[in-house]
Design brief:
Length: 288
């Protein structure tokens, strides 16, 4: 496995690429504020005439993502396109462009927080409260109750052979307090452990990168920048493109450091070997 190369700012390699595929949470912001230097880096990349596509494993659709970015200081002129896992899933279900949805029944058992039903808008779906009545599970977010309380439901659903549509496949994120916060991907991992089938439309699904290439048909060389070896770097490797691993995100504690501080090269090499994914470069933050 090739050892990733340390760079302390993106300007060192930017001239080699014309398409930048950027993760949001952990690279650009923490959900409450932009990371230092991220907006400036995007300005410089766009000023150089390059294409920026924001790719997020968020369960939200694109209009919601645009509003959040604007609130955090990311105006629409800083990027060319936005892709979210939730949007890809919504479009695939609506158009039945994925074979799964050609035969999938309309009854879904929804796992979510605060009763949010935005994803269901515009879809011909029926929600049910009893899993035995469902055609599939729809996971949009983690509920307020402990994850362990869902195990009986997941086991029943797996036994029934119900597919799980997982809108956000990420396992964790770093919250504004610098704490590791679980995200819906852990339910997908648990469901697979019970023998269930999980469908995702976000990273590292190759279709994400195929969509990016279609949106930037003139791009000659792309690079993906993200904080998850499981999703951002694995996705980039699967797509055959270069990548930058941002170490201040979800793996920060595994690397024995803290947000904004660089881990040792040894820690980077060890973690990449353990997880079987190696980026081209690594950097503590996304800065110019």
């Amino acid at each position: 496995m090739t050892k990733p190369i340390f760079i302390d700012h993106v300007a060192l390699i930017a001239h080699d690429y014309d398409l930048f595929i950027l993760d949001q949470w952990g690279v650009l912001h923490d959900g409450e504020r932009a990371h230092d230097g991220a907006i400036d880096a995007m300005i410089e990349i766009k000023s150089a005439g390059k294409t920026i596509i924001l790719v997020s494993n968020s369960s939200k659709r694109v209009p919601i993502s645009i509003k959040r970015l604007l609130r955090l200081g990311f105006s629409s002129d800083l990027y060319d396109h936005i892709i979210t896992s939730g949007e890809l899933a919504w479009q695939a279900m609506k158009t039945k462009s994925d074979p799964l949805y050609e035969t999938l029944g309309p009854k879904c058992f929804v796992i979510n927080k605060f009763g949010d039903s935005v994803f269901l808008e515009g879809q011909s779906l029926e929600t049910v409260d009893i899993v035995e009545q469902a055609d599939f599970l729809l996971v949009a977010d983690l509920p307020e109750e402990p994850i362990e309380s869902l195990e009986p439901t997941l086991k029943v659903a797996a036994k029934l052979g119900l597919p799980m549509l997982l809108l956000n496949p990420d396992f964790a994120s770093i919250n504004p307090l610098g704490e590791l916060h679980p995200t819906p991907g852990i339910l997908g991992r648990a469901y697979e452990g019970f023998g269930g089938t999980v469908k995702i439309h976000g990273k590292p699904n190759p279709a994400v990168y195929e969509t990016c290439f279609k949106l930037a048909p003139r791009a000659q060389k792309a690079i993906a920048i993200g904080d998850s070896l499981h999703h951002d770097i694995a996705g980039a490797n699967g797509a055959g493109i270069d990548s930058i691993f941002i170490t201040s995100g979800v793996h920060v504690f595994e690397l024995g450091t803290e947000p904004g501080k660089a881990p040792t090269q040894e820690k980077i090499n060890t973690l990449c070997t353990e997880l079987g994914q190696s980026p081209t470069f690594w950097s503590p933050r996304f800065t110019w």
